[in-house]
Amino acid sequence: MDLYEQPTQPDRRSESQGASPSSTRGMSRRKALGLGAASLVGIGAVGAGGVALERWWQERHGQQGAIGGDIKIGHLLRKAGFGASASEIQSYAGLGFEGAIDRLLNYQQVSEEATERRLSQLQLDMSKPAEMQQWWLMRMAWTQRPLLEKMTLFWHGVLVSSYRKVGGKNGYERMIVQNKFLREHAFDTYDNILLGITADPAMQVYLDLNKSTSQHPNENYARELMELFTLGLGNYSQQDVFNGAAALTGWRLSKQDPLKSTYVPSAHTNLQTTFLGHTGKLDYKNIVDILANHPALPWFICRKLFTFFVYENPSKDDLQPLVDAYNQSKHNMGAVMKALLHSPQFSSAQAYRSRLKSPVEFTIGAYRALEMQGTGKALPAITLNMGQEIFNPPNVAGWPGDKVSTAWLNSGTWMTRLNYINAFLQGQEGAKKRVLQGQQQPLDFQHIVDSQKISSPEQFVTYFANFLLDGNLPAERKTVLVDYLTTRDTSRGASVKFGNGTSYPLNRVRGTLYLLMTLPEYQLN
Question: SS3 for 492?
Fold first, then answer.
């Protein structure tokens, strides 16, 4: 199946063999793309790095009122997870919106045994970066605890480390140790998260805390701890950096176990110092306590959280409920996340499809939505080519797209998205192009049509639009998709028989879903 076009020739079959009267117009894939994927170019989204796409959505749909009904469930599972299949949306919808939030937050009540079993069957080598990435990406694809994985991804983009600087190949697995810590403490108090990330071997190597001595304190971790992890610029001085670095000394990597670190009091600078107005013989616990209780911190971390999960440029009023939750819960991030999900802003029209999907959200979202089966071996390379390599953010500030989502899109990453969906829907056939070699089995369209009792092209398009686009498919786009599916095609390949007895070429059926998944609307989260 060619990425851009499938030329069509007049078909001499009768209408009873599967062609509609209107299909004689010869709807090619390139023509269908004119109102589908390629329309992104038309609105300038690609050339403008995605900014025009965001503007186009806002102008088309406005930002008034609140979303409701089943749309809220799809919205919730995209924002607080990675999207969902039709059956998963139906399951969460049965709980109601409040019940769905409770299930996401109280993830311990949901078994993850099946996910762990499937991951263990992959028999991956955690000392190899590509297999570490495959392990986490497939965890996101298979998890029954989507908010927990989404929160882990959030922390990974805030409390940044990279496998490229964790001590070489013998230290790669330190990233897995850090990843497991972030997952286990995703909704803990921020105090405990900061204490744990300070003691984390990957972080210590990444920001040189393991090299910091009482005679020569290294300032890297102290500076980033304040600038990027807790307070932001303007809330501390260079003297605070120097004194904080001295107070943070004493950490060493374990000689017995390279995946652990130890605190050596004798290696700590045991001198009186002043840090952010607090004077005494301070150690790392004091530093974390001072930062966690600093009045600037809740505004700083809640802004990052709100931006990642809701929309960009939140106001003070948007953040106030989250800041209150932080302070009233003694810094519990689970309480902050609960306040965020229950806030009117989260369910507002302004939040609906307000951000461009990140590469991880795009790839894993498709995987989950269509319940694809496979190992995910090629996914690390796919997300890398889209601009996001997990376990390797570009720098200590994390991914720019987490802050301004339109940064994810340019002409190169857009083409990778097209190629991914094209090969993704072909399954093993896509291996010929080495895009998803060994990735997954092809989607069984006949089973979908039979199980969902789909009797017409219109029903086919509606079925997928309902859970991929919340049913928000403009009439003109639906017409294009139906026309494409019903266009006469002389290919002699496999076909899919609909409930009305009419058969359509598999490449047309598959191509219709491809066009749907490359619409501008589908790119937005």
Answer: coil
Nearby residues of 320 by Cβ (< 8 Å), 6 or more positions away: none
How far apart (Å, rounded) are the C-alpha atoms in residues 41 and 190? Answer: 43
pLDDT digits (tens, 9 = 90+) for 195-245: 999 999 999 999 999 999 999 999 999 999 999 999 999 999 999 999 999
E runs forming strands in 233-365: 251-253, 261-263, 273-275, 278-280
What are the two backbone dihedrals, phi and then psi, of residue 237, each rounded to the nearest 5 degrees? Answer: -115, 170
Q: Do 80 and 473 contact (CB within 8 A), yes or no?
A: no
Q: Are 17 and 497 in contact (CB under 8 A)?
A: no
Helical packing angle, 457-468 and 86-93, nearest 10°: 60
Is-contact 300 306, C-beta < 8 A? Answer: no
For residue 417, which of 507, 509, 308, 517 has the smallest C-alpha distance? 517
Query: Do the Cβ atoms of 229 and 244 come closer than 8 Å?
Result: no
3-state secondary structure of 472: coil
Q: How many helices (H) and strands (E) does the chain have?
A: 26, 6
Q: Is the dihedral of CA 307, 312, 313, 318 positive or negative?
A: negative
Tokens (6 digits) for 238? 């260079």
H-helix or E-strand spanning residue 392: none
- pTM, two decimals, is 0.90
Q: Is 476 helix (H, G, I), strand (E, B) or coil?
A: helix
Tokens standing for residue 447: 């089973």
Give the residues across from 487 on adjacent strands. none
